[in-house]
Write a structure and sequence with these properties.
The structure is a homotrimer of 494-residue chains. Chain A is an all-alpha fold and 494 residues long. Chain A has helices at 20-30, 50-60, 64-79, 84-90, 95-109, 116-129, 131-150, 155-159, 165-176, 188-209, 219-232, 260-272, 280-293, 295-314, 319-323, 329-341, 347-372, 381-392, 411-446, 452-464, 467-493.
């Protein structure tokens, strides 16, 4: 997702006794950061998560056991989060290797995860599900990334996989909804064309959404897959789509027939359906991929899928649709997005995320019914619309803090950013109070002074005008004093 | 509607010989204003309408008859407009009583009326129509308001009923379009859920619309009711909706069969249909409710409904639909919104309002046909879209003045605001002319002076730079003069 | 299209020996320019195209042949581009004649051409196609322009035909899609109503699009024609529309039956379909109209139409639809818009225009299928949406330069504007380098000087604050020096 990547500062002391790989990674870690954010300057003071904990832990340990633990934590810090050390190391590698890194990150970015290892695990899950789909997904990610390079998009955003995630979805879902069967090689043609259009649509949507500091989510994918499906349709010679029709009669729902086991597997299946996969094992693998990068994300994905399943039951949806995970995948994404990704995670935000998941399930049912009129699936429109609504929502409480898009990373780091900001604000408030007291004291002192008139005028100005002009006035004042001093010395000399 | 409420200044002399109620109201009237507008600081100079007239009238009266008249006017001032005196008095009452006030204002805000008495009359009309619907409407308004409180939305906006009006529509229309029959108690569940979602959607839409200083109108209601209806649909076990299908054959229209009496009753029915009511008496009651608060609003509502009816005939709509008020309700709202509510009422604006009503009728037919494809009613989408279009419209004439959203109250007060602004502008223009003349005279005087060069430079600067910097430069100039004076006196002393 | 017109400076020396018409035109040419742009001040330094070339050429020629050539070029300069000399001359004519000029320009503005001669040729083509349609188109343009005058829209925009082009499309297409047959005079009624609504919708959309510096394209036409068609529909007594239904079976496509000759005529037919015309000769006439004003536009129109035809074949569209030009017209407009009209034409932009045409064809198929569900044609929605997407697209390369909307004219002039801007930038860069060197030298000189402290402080300020404040500081500095000089001389005098 745009704005999900940023650079970070470098731990100063990483010990030198680790493995060669670790060393190489560490050196990369200390190399100059080039990765530029998509939309703003990242806070350079924001520091790494696991790695710092590890470093801090390390200095305290003495026994062997503790050492091993520290080593484990450090190793963990290299593979969790957004794997920045790895990203730094990658920058000095062969271009094709870099491209692979970007593609893997792109695959994981569908779930807001900027982590190549997660991407690798996700591809494993896809291969388990269907090799033809996995191939299409890979082609889609690859060409979307290449197209972004050709179109000279922000290098940092490309490296974070932000131009790939729509590509993988386009590739996958075009294969999933194609009625021509697997291994219909001609499909790669529209797949490549549509993937390469992704960065254009992404960039255009970002021009609009950035006005409200909103990400584009999977809107480019939704637009392009719907475009392809409705442009060709079920009755097409070259690229026929599966037949989707609106419901025209009462579904046969007998509560006695409900299969509780299947309802439970609907939770991982719902996570799998984000990538169009109905295999519960694939969904489970995706959960592992999420957990590697961010446990909070994984937890919210599970909650979202469960909320979707419950909503389906509440709205009397056919059981088959629920088992198939169709009620889950949008809620998964919406719950991740609101629950810690774009808002700093507090209890209120957690509740908001669950509300958003329920809203998303409702919206999902609505959009699925509307889209079926045109022979289209719901794609992830419900997620996009509900998440955008909940991100546009404003409130007067300060426990619901929307992160600036440029500072969005992963829930754990977002939290740290939020806490730092709070601490900084508190300090500033305190400082300001002290300053004000000092100012008042100084003012008192100056009263009765012959410079009173001048100063009063300046005060007046200060209240009326902005900070910048204030600074200048102070400079002017100093200049004036210097000038007066000069002149008076001159006058004295005479 | 957002931005429809604002605080106002307090008549200084309200005589003390009125009834206890009047006194209590008057004291409330003088209490500190807390009501904060949704989007900006209201003009504190804007003064009350009827009450001031009354106060002014009063000072002149001597005979008993005149006194009675003044008393009547003052009493009228307490129940017409937005009943601010009452709102002030309410602030010191028990919370549940306040909540009731907000709910009643919410009920009336559907028609842009911020008046609890109107709200009470409207509820009476609803009860006359159908008690189950009235109950649903009440529940909707109540929970929407409570949800806004929980979500910590602007207190002033809540107190003006701006979070309730979508709630009442959601509650009412969900009951109207439910196929499960009256008193199907389960319906209250989605009713409460949807009402409580209203403030979230309202807030999100306001984030977008505020960029163009536009209100959200009834968009949250439209979105949420359509959401509920299409998510469940006609074929649903829990919450079935009435069956709405697109027209597929020529309507049977015989002009000889037109019932003129029914066409005339279509005007109040059209007003009633704003709340989904087809009883002409209910419509009549609603007209009374409008008249209490603002006669201009009432007049435009009637005009709008008539325009809708005429458009229906012009576009060959089935007579039944016209009699049923389906062509009227959107035009009612559009005509009120443009005719004096968001624009200051002039003759040109009046014509614009009628144009907007025609456009709205056309759009209504179009949207009804499109929505029927999905089994949905038109709701008030036509009103929202046509009113937003006409509010986005810009022209070079100054007789069409769009009020800043924060200054929108009710047509009579808006007019007064507009007149004051005009007068102020005129005064400023005159003052400016005088100033310019003075400036020129002063300049003339200074020519030939040894300070000429300096001054010229400053002029240059003045033309190039903004106002703020100008102010500063004048201060600098003064400082300079002080400094020069100081130095020269020093020099002289030497 | 909004922002497509602008004023320009006046060649100083136009020789006096030409025909009376030429003289009159020339005098008009030198008259004061009043034409105000829709959105910004046009660059007054931008000079004419052909006329200047002609003037330059002229000064060098001596032989009769060269003279004739120069005369031809000058004459060409009067009829090509946006015929500004003629527009200036028109300003002093009778109002009805001016109105005719605006209507003709409006007719041509559909293709982004601001040229009354092109408009005349286009009307000729329309008459060749169908007189009733041509009449409706004329009525539409006329009333849209009149409505814009009544609604006090920008005079410059009206004079450039920017309020007429939606009108002609509304008029034409309402006639084309009417099921009541030709010469059904009642149709003029909704035609006039809808045309007169055009400026309102245009203005409203411009309020939104101007936030992203985007034109409104033909969106008002799309909205209003769809509005009219879906509001009345096929089953209407007064204004029945042609029956459009979604595809429900496999089209019969036999590649052996493809008619290559018809495929080639599909290119001009595609251009004709912009105005709803299926006559290839009409299309050819339109190409002439484009060529008169701007050869680049004409070339891109042809390329666009060809791209549309190829896309149709690639997506297995029924041959009849391709022959009928339905795949071409949107691509024609999209290719013109991107290829040199809103972007300065470079090779990269040319490729982008072709990409946009392909995207537009795809989108066209999609939108046609979606709209057919409501019995609607695709209109030019695909063009609008694809062109807006490609105009919102941003990239880091500087070979893709989007012109500010206020500077958009026609591709040839846009290119000149772009080149001038580049040259200016280059000069500025060079100047800046020289300045910096000088500054450094000056600074060096000042080091060791007693003013060092002051100057350093100012430097500091300069880096921190904006340009404007810089200017002021320099002035202050000068004032200070003058003041110091004054004082020191005073001191010396003592």
């Amino acid at each position: 997702m745009p704005g999900l990547h940023r650079t970070k500062d470098i731990p100063k002391n990483i010990s030198s006794f680790y493995s060669a790989l670790t060393q190489e990674l560490a050196s990369a870690f200390q190399s100059k950061k080039e990765q530029q954010p998509l939309m703003a300057n990242p806070d350079p003071e924001m520091s790494g998560g696991w790695e710092q904990k590890a470093a801090q832990g390390e200095s305290a340990v003495h026994t062997c056991q503790q050492k091993a633990k520290a080593r484990l934590l450090l190793l963990l810090s290299y593979i969790s989060g957004d794997m920045e050390v790895f990203a730094e190391w990658m920058k000095k590698q062969f271009f094709l290797l870099q491209l692979l890194d970007w593609v893997l990150r792109g695959a994981a970015q569908v779930m807001f995860v900027n982590n190549p290892l997660s991407g690798l695990v996700i591809f494993a899950g896809l291969i388990l599900q269907n090799r033809w789909w996995a191939l299409n997904g890979f082609v889609g990610t690859l060409f979307a990334t290449i197209s972004a390079l050709i179109l000279q998009q922000s290098r940092g955003a490309i490296a974070a996989g932000l131009y790939g995630y729509n590509g993988i979805l386009v590739g996958l879902l075009m294969a999933v909804f194609s009625n021509a069967g697997d291994w219909y090689w001609w499909l790669l043609l529209p797949n490549i064309v549509m993937s390469m259009t992704c960065p254009i649509v992404s960039s255009a949507l970002a021009s609009i959404n950035s006005r409200w500091d909103l990400p584009v989510f999977t809107l480019p994918f939704n637009i392009l897959v719907c475009l392809h499906m409705v442009a060709t349709g079920h009755y097409n010679h070259h690229f026929p789509q599966v037949l989707i029709q609106p419901r025209t009669e009462l579904a046969n729902i007998t509560w006695a027939e409900v299969n509780v086991a299947k309802l439970f597997t609907a939770v991982p299946v719902g996570i799998g359906q984000v990538y169009g996969c109905d295999n519960p094992w694939t969904g489970g693998i995706f959960m592992v991929a999420l957990f590697i990068s961010s446990p909070i994300t994984c937890a919210h994905a599970t909650i979202g899928s469960a909320v979707g399943m419950i909503s389906g039951l509440a709205l009397a949806a056919p059981f088959e649709a629920i088992y198939f995970g169709l009620w889950g995948y949008n809620c998964v994404l919406a719950c991740i997005a609101i629950g810690g990704m774009f808002y700093a995670l507090t209890w209120q935000v957690h509740l908001l995320a669950i509300t958003c998941a329920f809203f998303c399930a409702y919206l999902g049912s609505a959009i699925a019914n509307v889209m079926s009129t045109f022979g289209l699936p719901a794609c992830t429109w419900p997620f996009c619309l509900s998440a955008l609504t909940f991100l546009l929502f404003t409130t007067e409480t300060n426990t619901i803090f929307k992160l600036p898009l440029a500072n969005v990373a992963y829930p754990e780091r977002n939290l740290r950013f939020f806490w730092k900001l709070r601490k900084k604000e508190k300090l500033e408030r305190e400082e300001k109070e002290i300053d004000e007291e000092k100012w008042r004291a100084k003012e008192q002192e100056l009263l009765g002074n012959d410079k009173e008139v001048l100063r009063m005028e300046r005060m007046d100005g200060k209240e009326k005008e902005g900070k910048e002009i204030n600074k200048m006035m102070i400079q002017e004042e100093e200049m004036m004093e210097v000038a007066l001093g000069e002149v008076s010395s001159m006058a004295e000399n005479v």
